[in-house]
Design a protein that fits this description.
Layout lengths: L3 H8 L3 H16 L5 E2 L11 H13 L2 H5 L8 H15 L8 E4 L1 H13 L6 E5 L5 H8 L3 E5 L10 H7 L4 E7 L11 H18 L4 E5 L22 E6 L12 E4 L7 H14 L7 H10 L6 H17 L4 E2 L6 E5 L5 H10 L2 E2 L1 E2 L8 E5 L4 H19 L1
Parallel strand pairs: 1-11, 3-4, 3-5, 5-6, 6-7
Antiparallel strand pairs: 2-8, 7-8, 9-10, 10-13, 12-13
The structure holds pyridoxal-5'-phosphate (PLP).
Length: 396
């Protein structure tokens, strides 16, 4: 009666959601202050003032049918032009309004882009561990094949040997995400250059362009002046999937875009396929009010320093306790080695201390856990005694 695949997807929550729901239930039993929930990536930094100011101004000055009405399927021209101008000025690009398709966040951007590129079930999308677990759902839901490249656990850049082995005649695209969820690392310029050169070589070898899908919801969340290279400048067949969920702390408003630059091979056809996939998936006309807000707030962010403060607090204290952590350069996740091989068992022991950490098995990186630090600083401080207790189990 229903699709078995969709039934399976809908009947089981993701590990992260499961843990988040458990945390809410547990807080009712023992008090919110006694549960240390590091499970979910919901931004805690307030949206910058321009968001509220723009909403008020738009409500006061624009007529209701324009605010709440349909825009063009691909989004308001004014919004797309504002984004193009911002990117051209910031990254020295040469993009135009017509290169953009406004969508409902990075999730929709990815689903649309994957659908636009998929011709047959044999088409493969390669993801690099550790990766956002929904990639597998998005790829398989569009009828394509998911392929994973194991992590480079030394630097959490790219395991190029394994990537080269994974690419074949069926490879449609590689999905990258930097700053990365869950490792917090940023792909260096050297990594991006090496990736571009590999993809150029492989595209020539197989006689078709291998696309790079750059999933960038954390682009602006980078610390200590580490540069996040703008990928289209290094590899011409790049499609950018962007979201304002994290930079403007607007995850519930579902707003972002797809950028298909002119340099992409057959860019007009690719853009048309993006419009077609958006239409087929029902993602036409991204939320209208928030498109107008973006036109006014493009380039702004919440106070990223608050995340940096949390990063420093957690990283310094956890490493001092003997935990082995990857120092985050961006995003708001700390990637930590579990103190035993089985990260699920480690997270169960953490849970018994009311410490909610996500085992990285679903991120393609068993043996590690993800700690999401977009939380109140006070909760981090209160959690240290639980982290001490957890570490002590392994020191006994
Ligand atoms: N990609 C990555 C790497 C993410 O971490 C997330 C959300 O956390 C998404 C995509 C989806 O973002 P959005 O809320 O914009 O759909």
């Amino acid at each position: 009666m229903v699709s078995e695949k969709m039934y399976q997807l809908g009947s089981k929550r993701s590990t992260i959601r499961e843990l988040f729901e458990y945390g809410k239930k547990r807080a009712q039993e023992v008090g919110k202050e006694n549960v240390y929930d590091f499970s979910i990536g919901n931004p805690t930094v307030p949206s910058p003032a321009c968001v509220k100011e723009s909403i008020m101004e738009i409500l006061d000055t624009v007529d209701s049918s324009t605010i709440h009405g349909y825009t063009s399927a691909q989004g308001d021209l004014e919004t797309r032009a504002a984004i193009a101008t911002y990117l051209n000025n910031t990254y020295d690009l040469n993009v135009k309004a017509d290169n953009f398709y406004m969508t409902c966040g990075a999730a929709a951007s990815l689903c649309i882009s994957i659908k636009a590129l998929t011709e047959t079930k044999e088409d493969e999308f390669v993801v690099i561990a550790p990766f956002f677990p929904e990639y597998r759902v998005f790829i398989e839901a569009q009828g394509a094949t998911f392929k994973m490249v194991p992590a480079d656990t030394k630097a959490f850049q790219i395991n190029f040997e394994a990537l080269e082995e994974a690419i074949n005649i069926h490879t449609k695209a590689i999905i990258i995400n930097s700053p990365n969820n869950p490792s917090g690392t940023i792909y260096s310029e050297e990594t991006i250059k090496q990736l571009a050169s590999l993809l150029d070589r492989k595209s020539d070898e197989y006689g078709h362009a291998i696309v790079l899908l750059s999933d960038e919801p954390y682009r602006e969340i980078a610390y200590d002046d580490v540069v996040v290279p703008y990928v289209t400048r290094y590899y011409k067949n790049t499609i950018v999937c962007y979201s304002y969920s994290k930079s403007l702390s607007l995850p519930g408003e579902r707003i972002g875009y797809i950028l298909v630059p002119d340099e992409v091979e057959n860019s007009k056809a690719v853009y048309a396929a993006v419009c077609g996939a958006g239409r087929a998936l029902g993602y036409v006309c991204a939320p209208s009010l928030f498109q107008k807000v973006i036109a006014k707030c493009v380039g702004q962010t919440g106070d990223i320093d608050l995340y940096k403060k949390n990063r420093d607090l957690l990283y310094e204290n956890l490493t001092a306790m003997g935990y082995e952590c990857v120092k985050p350069q961006g995003a708001f996740y700390l990637f930590m080695k579990a103190m035993e091989e089985d990260s699920v068992a480690f997270c169960e022991k953490a849970k018994a201390c009311d410490l909610l950490l996500v085992a990285a098995d679903d991120f393609g990186c068993p043996g590690y856990v993800r700690i999401s630090y977009c939380v109140e600083e006070d909760m981090i401080r209160r959690s240290f005694k639980a982290f001490e207790k957890l570490a002590s189990i392994y020191k006994a």
